């Protein structure tokens, strides 16, 4: 049974009042891939009554009053994504659709949803506790650079009018908060719970805390901002993290308590065994359902956390670096539930998490001492204490693909190839290629320039090259024709036009033009975003080149997709500015031809129909005739005419 979404639902259950009203920016999907489903079901399992208000009309304060005043408080989440990332592309253009809304309709939640919802509630309920949660609140829990306004903003706790933030995954802290409120403790007195952020008027009740620079100080100095950010970054571990205090004035302080301890495997299993309906609320059927729910319907979350340490990823701030896993039995049980669903066609779409092939903490020390504060597990090279072992993951995958009615088990959530290489046993690579790839394996080298990769927190390009050789060699042994599809990123801090040209040459040598290129997106609370705003690497305080000019960013992006005729002018300009006019000409190493000849070629080209045509609007080149050059271990296009070869 779904949780109540109206007063009528509440009355049918025989409830006179709910304990908590959960206000969310997403549609109500009762599936463990959605944070609101996990938190509400955990509270339900502890005996609390929870009502759901999904995507209220933020222009009408009555939209948050449908259950009346809750007995204990309001829970508020912007949804599974930061609302600004959900709404805008990196170029700050409005996205056309929202995968977390019925029918994919855009505009059902406000910008800065956590702040807007919090204030909406506070207008009516002056004294009722408000607890923020979800990724938007987690990543904005202290002062942060906001890309969309190009400003340093205060903690979301202050701007929202809320009383507390439950940051991270929240299972432990939300139960502690609920039990304390239920026991009659005032929320203003709950200043000590792990995994929470609170505001206080003085520091009399705060002990053993480190004082960060004040909000005014970090606003005035980018260097101070970078130092403060890195102090926060080094205190995201539940075992070694310290209590942090961010002053705003003499009578207002924001206090971040240490992160909550990771869940044990038994606790993880219990979370995923709760009675989810595993789909969206039936009231959305008339609108065509929820697009995001279809993506995860037959996928299994096997872990959380990531010790990969990519600079542009916010997982360190949200899920932490210590891996938490579910047991094989728990995953098999959920797979059996998937098999029973009428729409199941025999394919489990994914078995993974932030990184699919992480199934244990990086080393044996982490569960006792925590993750190291001053070094990464995989970067710049794998730590000598790293335990790289895929045996358990292999066993889980073998069991899942042996289940009745299961035709194929895919892995789509991302393979960390440097970790795969650190495992000297080739069994996982063999079984990955043999059973879990559907023709193409998506991997994320992100770039080829070691200078940029260093800023990204990614391994050197030689590591990716080693992986590609092993991948193609394994497929050759298995007599399979399967390809790597690399994710590439343009305009990351540290990338000048020189490095962008280097990446374009790499694509040329592969005979590959990516259909999708991610321009670096400065989301809250990442090392890369700190570099973007300050021009400093917070780990070393060294200056970093940051491509901020929209035109330069467009040139860097166009270079990667240099074959697209629509990008010709940008590519030419970039090559001239980079001093690489040697790449304009007729030699096979050239990226583009001189304009006159390029135009003649374009005019003379026959117009074709079908899927193999250049799509100017999308800026992509679809090529279905790719083949593997096993001698050089690279993908190259199948048929090219003489003119194309000269390019």
TrEMBL record:
Residue ranges of domain Radical SAM core in the record: 291-563
Keywords: 4Fe-4S, Iron, Iron-sulfur, Metal-binding, S-adenosyl-L-methionine
Residues bound to [4Fe-4S] cluster: 306, 310, 313
Cofactor(s) in the UniProt record: [4Fe-4S] cluster
Cofactor mode of binding and number, as noted: Binds 1 [4Fe-4S] cluster. The cluster is coordinated with 3 cysteines and an exchangeable S-adenosyl-L-methionine.
Residues covered by region (Disordered): 597-647
Name of a matching Pfam family: Radical_SAM_N
Basic and acidic residues composition-biased segments: 597-606
Entry keyword Cell cycle: no
Keyword Iron: yes
PROSITE patterns in alphabetical order: RADICAL_SAM (PS51918)
Basic residues composition-biased segments: 607-619, 633-647
NCBIfam families referenced in this protein's UniProt entry, alphabetically: SAM_YgiQ (TIGR03904)
Family per record: Belongs to the UPF0313 family.
Protein name in UniProt: YgiQ family radical SAM protein
Protein source organism: Ruminococcus hominis
Classification lineage: Bacteria, Bacillati, Bacillota, Clostridia, Eubacteriales
């Amino acid at each position: 049974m779904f949780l109540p979404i109206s007063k009528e639902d509440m009355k049918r259950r025989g409830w006179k009042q709910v304990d908590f009203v959960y206000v969310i920016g997403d549609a109500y999907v009762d599936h463990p891939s959605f944070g609101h489903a996990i938190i509400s079901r955990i509270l339900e399992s502890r005996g609390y009554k929870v009502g759901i208000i999904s995507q209220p009309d933020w222009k009408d304060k009555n939209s948050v009053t449908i259950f009346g005043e809750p007995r204990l408080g309001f829970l508020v989440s912007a949804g599974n994504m930061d609302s600004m990332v959900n709404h805008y592309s990196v170029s700050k253009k409005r996205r056309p659709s929202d995968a977390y809304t019925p029918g994919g309709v855009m505009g059902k939640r406000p910008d800065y949803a956590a702040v807007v919802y919090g204030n909406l509630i506070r207008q009516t309920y002056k004294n009722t506790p408000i607890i923020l949660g979800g990724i938007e609140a987690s990543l904005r829990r202290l002062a942060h650079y906001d890309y969309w306004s190009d400003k340093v903003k205060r903690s979301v706790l202050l701007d929202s009018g809320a009383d507390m933030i439950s940051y991270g995954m929240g299972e432990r802290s939300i139960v502690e908060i609920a039990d304390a409120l239920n026991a009659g403790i005032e929320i203003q007195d709950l200043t000590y719970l792990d995994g929470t952020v609170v505001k206080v008027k003085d520091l009399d009740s705060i002990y053993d805390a480190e004082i960060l620079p004040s909000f005014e100080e970090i606003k005035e100095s980018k260097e101070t901002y970078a130092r403060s950010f890195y102090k926060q970054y080094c205190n995201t571990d539940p075992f070694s993290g310290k209590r942090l205090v961010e002053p705003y004035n003499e009578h207002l302080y924001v206090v971040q308590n240490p992160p909550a301890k990771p869940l044990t495997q038994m606790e993880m299993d219990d979370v995923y065994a709760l009675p989810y309906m595993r789909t969206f609320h039936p009231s959305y059927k008339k609108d065509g359902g929820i697009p995001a729910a279809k993506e995860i319907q037959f996928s299994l979350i096997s872990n959380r956390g990531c010790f990969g340490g990519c600079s542009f990823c916010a997982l360190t701030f949200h899920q932490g670096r210590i891996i938490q896993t579910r047991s094989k039995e728990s995953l098999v049980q959920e797979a059996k539930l998937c098999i029973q669903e009428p729409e199941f066609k025999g394919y489990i779409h994914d078995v993974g998490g932030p990184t699919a092939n992480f199934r244990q903490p990086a080393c044996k020390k982490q569960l006792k001492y925590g993750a190291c504060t001053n070094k990464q597990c995989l970067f710049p090279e794998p730590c000598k204490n790293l335990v790289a072992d895929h045996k358990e993951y292999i066993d889980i995958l073998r069991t899942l693909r042996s289940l009745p009615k299961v035709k194929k088990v895919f892995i789509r959530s991302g393979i960390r190839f440097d970790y795969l290489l650190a495992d000297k046993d080739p069994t996982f690579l063999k079984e990955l290629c043999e059973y879990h790839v559907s023709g193409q394996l998506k991997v994320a080298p992100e770039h080829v320039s070691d200078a940029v990769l260093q800023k990204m927190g990614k391994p050197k390009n030689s590591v990716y090259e080693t992986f590609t050789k092993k991948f193609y060699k394994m497929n050759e042994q298995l007599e399979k024709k399967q390809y790597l599809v690399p994710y590439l990123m343009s305009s990351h801090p540290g990338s000048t036009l020189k490095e962008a040209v280097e990446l374009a040459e790499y694509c040329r040598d592969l005979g590959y033009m990516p259909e999708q290129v991610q321009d670096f997106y400065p989301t809250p609370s990442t090392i890369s975003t700190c570099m973007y705003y300050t021009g400093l690497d917070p780990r070393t305080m060294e200056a970093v080149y940051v491509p901020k000019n929209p035109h330069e960013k467009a040139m860097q992006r166009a270079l990667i997709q240099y074959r697209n005729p629509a990008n010709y002018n940008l590519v030419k300009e970039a090559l001239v500015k980079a001093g690489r006019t040697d790449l304009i000409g007729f030699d096979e190493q050239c990226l583009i031809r001189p304009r006159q000849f390029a135009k003649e070629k374009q005019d003379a080209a026959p117009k074709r129909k079908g899927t193999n045509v250049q799509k100017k609007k999308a800026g992509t080149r679809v090529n279905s005739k790719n083949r593997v050059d096993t001698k050089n271990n690279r993908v190259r296009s199948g048929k090219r005419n003489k003119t194309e070869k000269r390019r």
